[in-house]
Amino acid sequence: MTTEETVALVTGANKGLGLETCRQLARRVITVLMGARDIELGRDAAGRLKSEGLTVEPVQLDVTRADHIAQIGSVIETRFGRLDILVNNAGMIHPEESLFANSSEQISLQALRETFEVNFFGQVALTQALLPLIKKSPAGRIVNVSSILGSLTLHSKESSEATQIKPLAYDASKTALNQFTVHLAASLNRTPIKVNAAHPGWVKTDLGSRRAPMGVEDGAKTAVRLATIGPDGPTGKFFHFNEEVPW
């Protein structure tokens, strides 16, 4: 994939993994639109990257709001005419849940719905809305930032490290996002577009906590690699760094 005049959109971009993903993409001479629910936080984050000499621009984007999705699509079409890279990074864990507890006996339906709105329905809605612009790219790339906690294969193994980490709403939303990845890749398999899911690892972020062993610099690498893979790269797969993760 060439980086000349390449345009990327990263959601949830004002902090953590999203911010670092923007930094690493922009270092590859990619113009990066930084999606943030709070535009002021987005401007502050973009200012930090601009001070590093990087080409980034903050845009207001709450993936659960149809008006924001329509607006960003209009902006991209008017200014660039296409979108080369979409990194669906925005995500949440509900206050009712903890990464380190099984919530399946007590999680409320409201918490499930709110989690899915951000982690699944918002990702699907944004991707579908922007797909016509991605199809105009000579080498469109869609990366869904998932989690190893969305892997049913690993959750069902007693020896897996995921055995004790079962926040139902979060995990189920990532499993659904994985399914969307597989289905969309199959739908687009006759096009140059590649669709993959990325497991960043257990990263020191607001979600991952300070207990996490990885920094955001390493955490962003998988999504950046998948966002910039060449024409012979994979599609419809789930990766952590270069290692394929089981669905």
Top keywords for this entry?
alpha/beta; Rossmann fold; 8 strands
Protein described:
- The structure is a single chain.
- This protein is 40% helix and 14% strand.
- The protein has 247 residues and is an alpha/beta fold.
- It has one domain (7-244): 3-Layer(aba) Sandwich (Rossmann fold), CATH 3.40.50.
- An eight-stranded mixed sheet has the order 3-2-1-4-5-6-7-8, sandwiched between helices.
- Strand 4 (85-88), helix 4 and strand 5 form a beta-alpha-beta unit.
- The longest helix is centred in the middle third of the chain and has 26 residues, at 109-134.
- The protein is globular, with a radius of gyration of 17 Å.
- Belongs to the short-chain dehydrogenases/reductases (SDR) family.
Judged by helices, strands and strand pairing, the structural class is alpha/beta
Radius of gyration: 17 Å
Q: What is the CATH superfamily?
A: NAD(P)-binding Rossmann-like Domain
Order of helices and strands: EHEHEHEHEHHEHHEE
CATH architecture label: 3-Layer(aba) Sandwich
* Estimated helix fraction: 25-40%
Overall, the morphology is globular
How many structural domains are formed by the residues?
1
| Strand content bin | 5-15%
Which oligomerization state do the chains in this entry correspond to? single chain
The N- and C-terminal alpha carbons lie at a distance of 27 Å
- Identify low-pLDDT runs: none
Mean pLDDT: 94
Summarize the biggest pleated sheet: 8 strands, mixed
E-strand count: 8
The CATH topology comes to Rossmann fold
Instruction: Walk across the major sheet and give the strand order.
Output: 3-2-1-4-5-6-7-8
